[in-house]
Records
---
Amino acid sequence: MNLVNCKGLSKSYGDKKALNQVDITLHAGSPIALVGPNGAGKTTLFSLLCGYIAPSAGEVNLLGHKPGSPELLGRIASLPQDATLDPNLDVLTQLSFFATLQGYSDKNAKAEAMRVLNLVDLASSAKQKPSSLSHGMAKRVAIAQALMGTPELVLLDEPTAGLDPANAKKIRELVKSLSTNTTFIISSHNLDELEKLCDQVLYLEHGQLRQSVSMNESQHDDYITLTMQHCEPSALIEAVLNLADISSIEERQSNQFLIKHNSAEVYGIEIALLNLFKQRNWQYKALLKGRTLEEKLFS
Ligand SMILES: Nc1ncnc2c1ncn2[C@@H]1O[C@H](COP(=O)(O)OP(=O)(O)OP(=O)(O)O)[C@@H](O)[C@H]1O
């Protein structure tokens, strides 16, 4: 059964078309990214998937059910972009309350609340009120709430926005570690982060699904992305073009080059590049098989 199925999904606010005829089929597995510029329709799509709003046209199904169906209780969860905590209740009390709403007994609700707080490394803050939490801690509590009951599908709207790099890394590691049992759909503007985490990337623009990119394809395509410490671009380009099986090389950003080759044996190209750097005493920073997500989406 498909995890998510959208067919001709559209949503208008007045005469503003926020989503326009979107078809999406998603399967359970590795995290899936949802990207797109401000106003592209990402939050609208999440809200439709969660059943917070109804479509203007088209269909949406999750695990074979309409959003908001009782059959989905405890099986899907979401972290809204603007999730807020109740300022009057300590963290444990409010998470326990949400667990009872999911059907847990009082005793089990507390245990489940502590389990998810442990997952986000905040068990020691269980008795704190939201006002005494930092922004990053409050975000982790909201993520803990989404993880209650080990749902099959979790929608995270900008889960690491505003977090410092260490906290953002913790969230990424958590998502990775839970991905065996839960499929995450993550909306974010941080392409580097999504590249590390996700196998599939959906690109929305002006309410339409423009691209669906598989990150695994990078293992099989004919590109290498080369980042140098610093170099003389023209000398590098000339030297690389003289190597066997190179079709083209372009400087795409400062010190970053996209190499297209026509060899089935990418290791041969990599070894030739490393030999060249050794001969010329050039320092490289990174050799990436394939193209970056940014290149795939915007070139
Ligand atoms: N409640 C609403 N009433 C009217 N227009 C809305 C409403 N919610 C969203 N829109 C409009 O729908 C479009 C899509 O908005 P949405 O919030 O889904 O985009 P987004 O991709 O999540 O943007 P961002 O990256 O800025 O969060 C925008 O043009 C927005 O102004």
---
Amino acid sequence: MAASLLLVNNGIFPITRDAEGKLLTDVPATGLQHPGTIQGEGKLVGTASLFIRLSGCNLRCMWNIPGGGVSACDTPDSSFDVSKNQLWKVDEIIETVRHNLGDMCHVVITGGEPTIQHRSLKELCRRLKEEFDVLITIETNGTLFDEELARHIDLFSISPKLSDSLVTEEKLKQLPQQLAEKVAAAPSQKTPCPDVIQQYIDVCLNSNGEKDFQLKFVMSGSENTESIHEEVLNHISGWKPSDILAMPLGGNHQTLGKTSLRVLETAIQHGWRYCPRIHIDLFGDKPGV
Ligand SMILES: Nc1nc2[nH]cc(C(=O)O)c2c(=O)[nH]1
Ligand code: SF4
Ligand SMILES: [Mg+2]
């Protein structure tokens, strides 16, 4: 059977043509007239990119916001609310990329947790590298590793989720009831997994500089540094402070406004890289940008 992948609704973005090369009637969510956006986070920030967002995640993240309130996973359509997902043949994804890639040299595979679909995903990544001159970034929570998949990836963007992201009764009470029910109903794997993260780092260290990784921590401020060390950094080796990305919690301007400067201060104190989310600055909290 031909390999296929579950993507979110409009899971290849931003695009202006379909798999047959026909112009789509809707302009992309970016509001721009052409396909593509920029990588909004991490070491390749600003790089012109096409995104492929896979559906499904093995975690259910939810954080407390400083000063009150909670912030749940910013891509619910790929984690606990997957009602609109779509099955794509790898061939269709490849053709859609072909008609939208233009001069872009970077494809970001994200989710959800894309490695859940590792069997078909390695086929997609193999084909992307074979047919196009692209670098591939994978955005992963670092709970699963597949050696063959890793061979096709250039940048591992690992965002380990710590105990402060676990769902609790207290947090659930602060969500609208419908959303709370969906979050509560979904199972979540224990996290983080330092042994898995180490496998990613080792692949990079053994790649003659061809592959790189980043460890991107969702943070509210200095209150997170103890668990970053105790739950992850103390258990892994082969990283430098500049591989550690301190990313402010928040999927919209309002929440980012409460966390950004606190996280910036902490990043500077530790020699870590501050990780802005520039797609949210540029386009807001819409999906598909
Ligand atoms: N422009 C843009 N950059 C991103 N970097 C990581 C993203 C993600 O959702 O994984 C993302 C995204 O959704 N859009
Ligand atoms: S790991 Fe990422 S995609 Fe999965 S629930 Fe957490 S924030 Fe959402
Ligand atoms: Mg994200």
